[in-house]
Amino acid sequence: MVKAKSDLIAQDLASKIRHQQFKHGEFLPGENQLAELYGSSRETVRKALEQLTSLGLIQKIKGKGSIVLNLEKYSFPISGISSFAELNKLLGMNAKTELLTYQKLPDLPPIFKEHFPEQKKQAGIYLERLRLINDEPEVLDCDYLFNPPVEKLPKEEAKKSIYAYLENKLGFDISYATKTITVEKINNDLQQKLQLDDQLAVLIASRNFLADTTLFQLTLSFHNPQKFKFIDFARRQKIKL
């Protein structure tokens, strides 16, 4: 599947922001200018700007345009459902992924039963992927993909982007996630994989759903608390009282 033009525009603008071609506090060119620059429609440009807005890279100001917000190099937006590969490409984190574990199992591994005790027995694919930034371990992602609906996942695809394969090859409509964020004591194995000085890590536990509300994936992301700042970019929703 060819990547959408709006995605390519968002990626290019994010790169320009990261390299300070558009600096914090400056306005991006207007929608008409961007449409002309990228040879696209204003609607396509708007979709690209919406991506940057959701990531907290820009703020749209009525009558003025889109102002660049302060981008912290190693901050992860935790409220979105972007894949690590997508964030790496968009934010230019110089990240690599090592596939540590790939197993087809008849039931959830013990670590998932511990964190998702309500989950019933179900077959699936278990993955452990170590995320390195500048060759240093930063995140350990543990994923359990339910079968069904994920009946196959080639090992080579697991080394890259799971979501790209599920969406582009299998036609999945990945929609939303619920997340729980805690600081927890981890075992020696996880500590060694992340090369932590102690056994405390930030854990983001996610339940990921398709558009038809099917739960297709559980994720446990263990993060080094000393190297990352986790940012949730929130917008005020006005409610009439």
Structural summary, described in words:
There is one protein chain. The chain is of the alpha+beta class and 241 residues long. The chain contains eight helices and ten strands. Strands 4-5-6-9-8-7 form a six-stranded antiparallel beta sheet. The chain has a two-stranded antiparallel ribbon with strand order 1-2. Helix 1 packs across helix 3 (42-54). It is globular.
Question: What are the SSEs and their pairings?
Answer:
Blueprint: H1 5-18, H2 31-38, H3 42-54, E1 58-61, E2 65-68, E3 75-77, H4 84-91, E4 95-105, H5 110-115, E5 124-133, E6 136-146, H6 155-158, H7 162-168, E7 174-185, H8 188-194, E8 200-210, E9 215-223, E10 229-231
Parallel strand pairs: 3-10
Antiparallel strand pairs: 1-2, 4-5, 5-6, 6-9, 7-8, 8-9
Helix pairs in contact: 1-3, 2-3
Oligomer: single chain
- Following the backbone from N to C, one meets helices and strands in this order, namely HHHEEEHEHEEHHEHEEE
The residue fraction in helices comes out at 25-40%
List the strand order in the largest sheet.
4-5-6-9-8-7
Structural class: alpha+beta
